[in-house]
Amino acid sequence: MMYRTTLNNRINALANNYIYINQDEISHSLICPICLDPLIDPQTHVLCNNSFCNRCIRKLRYCPCCRATIMELNDLIVTSDIIRNTLDELQIQCNICKHILCRGDFDNHIRNDCLQLSLITSEEENNSNTNEKYLEKHLSNLYCRIRKLEDGLYESKKVILTFLFVLSIIGIIILLNTILLYIIHLTISGLFTIKLPLFIQAIQKFLFDFLQ
Ligand SMILES: [Zn+2]
Ligand SMILES: [Zn+2]
Ligand SMILES: [Zn+2]
Fold this sequence. Notes:
Strand order of the largest sheet: 1-5-6
CATH class of the largest domain: Alpha Beta
Bound molecules: zinc ion
Shape: rod-shaped
GO molecular function, one term: zinc ion binding
Strand content: 5-15%
Protein name: RING-type domain-containing protein
Distance between the termini: 130 Å
Helix content: 55-70%
Organism: Rotaria sordida
Order of helices and strands: HEEEHEHEEHH
Domain RING-type: 32-67
Number of strands: 6
Structural class: mainly alpha
Mean pLDDT: 85
CATH superfamily of the largest domain: Zinc/RING finger domain, C3HC4 (zinc finger)
CATH architecture of the largest domain: 2-Layer Sandwich
Keywords: Membrane, Metal-binding, Transmembrane, Transmembrane helix, Zinc, Zinc-finger
């Protein structure tokens, strides 16, 4: 709502904010005898057929050309379409964005093109440029940091993989060792529990036979 109001105020403030291209070459029939500028919203005095800007003639009680008093609204009629169309086709330059266009398109230009695209004051433009530069710098810093993090991650990954590889090798060695030790244990215990008594018995028997 605030924005709308501000926008409309801006549009109103900018009405007719243009200059004519080659104003000297504009036909006299298109010039208002009161303000000496090209006619705006022209009205024609029915008695003398002269045309004036609506806002110019409304201020007067008489016609500046024929001196007749303007008593009624009917004394003035809307100027012919031919003149209105010719006025609409006058070339103008927008004071805000310096765009050259037909006068009839100016309102539309202010509402749709000029305000939104070009009515950024130089200060706002500078601000947005500064912001853009700041954002660009910020982004490139972020990219740098992301790249560094990625590199770090890659290095960490390599270290972790190497560590896991070494760990699994150690695990396999420990496992093999355990199996080996178990086998040795089995062999030795088997030797002592089964073979040793037999061996001792054999020695005893041998000694016994020998002594007898
Ligand atoms: Zn005028
Ligand atoms: Zn008149
Ligand atoms: Zn403009």
